[in-house]
C-alpha cells in the first residue's frame, strides 16, 4: 500500500514538474522603444563673403564684401537643393591693374544661383559641392549694367554645432570666360567668391 501511494505521489510530482517547466524554453523578448530621430530637411542661412571679378589680361580687379542669403532642402544625407542670393555691402572696390585709370569703378554687385548640392558626411562634418546655374551683375559698368549668366561650381565644408545649427565655409566659381555681358573690352574674366556663415535647419 505504501509502495503504491509512493509511486502515485512520485508520478504526480514528476507530472507537475513537466507541466510547470513546459514553457521554460520560451524566452520572453523585452520591448525596447527606439528613440525617434528628428529630421530637419529645410534650412536657411546667412554668411559674409568676399567676391572678386578680375580681368586677367589687364589685371583689373573689382571686389566687394558681400552678404549671402541661402535656403535649401535636403533630400537625404547626400543630396540637397540650394538657392543663394548675394549682394555687395556698399560700392565695390576697384584696382586698375596695368591700366592706371584714376576714376575707378564704384558700382554695386549682385548675384544669385541655384545649385544641386552633393554631400558626404563624416561625423559632424559635411564635405559638399555646388553645381548649378546663376548670374552676376555689376551696376553701371562701362556705361550700363553688366549681367552675365552661366555655370557655377563650388566646394565647401560644414560643421554641425547641434542638430539644427551648422557653420560653413565654401568657395564658388561664378564665371571664367572671355568677355562679360558681350563687352569686348573685358577680355578674360574670372569671377569667384569665398563665404563663411551659419545655417539653421527646421
Question: Which properties best describe this structure?
Answer:
single chain, 202 residues, mainly beta, Porin, eight-stranded antiparallel barrel, 9 strands, 9% helix, elongated, Beta-barrel_OMP, signal, OMP/PagP_B-barrel, Porin family protein
Could you walk me through the main structural features you see in this protein, from its secondary elements to its overall organization?
This protein has 202 residues and is mainly beta. It has a single domain, classed as Beta Barrel (Porin). 9% of the residues lie in helices and 62% in strands. It is built from 1 helix and 9 strands, in the order H-E-E-E-E-E-E-E-E-E. An 8-stranded antiparallel β-barrel has the order 1-2-3-5-6-7-8-9. The radius of gyration is 34 Å and the shape is elongated. The N and C termini lie far apart (84 Å). The model has no long low-confidence stretch (mean pLDDT 84).
Give me the Rg, rounded. 34 Å
Number of domains: 1
Q: How large is the count of helical segments?
A: 1
Q: Give the N-to-C terminal Cα separation.
A: 84 Å
Organism: Sulfurovum zhangzhouensis
Pfam families: OMP_b-brl
Protein name: Porin family protein
Domain Outer membrane protein beta-barrel: 41-202
Quickly describe the structure:
The chain has 202 residues and is mainly β. It has one helix at residues 2-20, and strands at residues 42-55, 60-74, 79-88, 93-95, 109-122, 125-141, 144-160, 165-180, 183-201.
Helices, strands, pairings?
Layout: H1 2-20, E1 42-55, E2 60-74, E3 79-88, E4 93-95, E5 109-122, E6 125-141, E7 144-160, E8 165-180, E9 183-201
Antiparallel strand pairs: 1-2, 1-9, 2-3, 2-4, 3-5, 5-6, 6-7, 7-8, 8-9
